[in-house]
Amino acid sequence: MRHPYILAACIAGVAVVAGCGEKNANATVERAFEDVNVVDENNLSDVMLTVADPNEAVSYFERASVSDPDRIDHQRGLASSLIRAKRITEGVIAWEKVVAMPDAAPDDSVELADALIRSGDWARAEKVLDGVSPTHETFKRYRLEALVADSKQEWKKADSFYQTAVGLTTTPGSVMNNWGYSKLTRGDYKEAERLFSDAVRHDDSLFTAKNNLVLARSAQKDYTLPVINMTQPERAQLLHTMALSAIKQGDVETGKGLLREAIDTHPQHFEAAVRSLRALENQNG
């Protein structure tokens, strides 16, 4: 990381030895350091947007935005960091500011729509998305369009948007999970099961998709765990989900058995399952 600074110093030395005037030498040094600072700043911004603590990133981009308020990349960094820090109301305001800047791009409007959905303002999110050019075809844009259509129970539109979104990404697990949940809410349990299975196949770290898969199977009175990769704690959690679903559907004895299995499976004390089983036994006792 020190090499650019050494290079800058060498440039200055060469300029003086070559007989350049002091003014030219200073200008050369300043330009060299400006280039180094831009590189270092971009690297730091990337770190702040990815691995840094979200609130630390907010502080960094707040300082950067104050020192250079016309830099749209700083404003974007601040808006993104606020959303990462779950400071959604502030994030909406920050993205509104970005969208109003002269260099704003369609992606900025999509990010604003995302922030609005997170804040629960579905109607405004829809208006923002409607204002994005139809030629701006990105995964995130169509995923958000699908969520908005879902919220309005416009199922055909939702399915079309989900299908388009899946085709625009190499990592469709999360959007398949969203699509499956949409099918689950409509009562299309078989299709929901298929989509959740596909989501897990693409990304077996998605515990939410695994849990939803169990819900879809349980809704069809299938109280067996699917054949998927799962840890022992995950297996216990999924058995617990299945048990509660069985009990809700009136299959109480099946639910009790699944709760006992969940308690025996978990490598530690499974308080939630123990509580549920005790409540059932006390109710019947």
Automatic annotation (TrEMBL):
PROSITE patterns given in the database record: PROKAR_LIPOPROTEIN (PS51257)
Pfam families cross-referenced by the UniProt entry: TPR_16, TPR_6
Coiled-coil boundaries: none
Name recorded for this polypeptide: Tetratricopeptide repeat protein
Source species of the chain: Sulfitobacter aestuariivivens
Taxonomic lineage: Bacteria, Pseudomonadati, Pseudomonadota, Alphaproteobacteria, Rhodobacterales
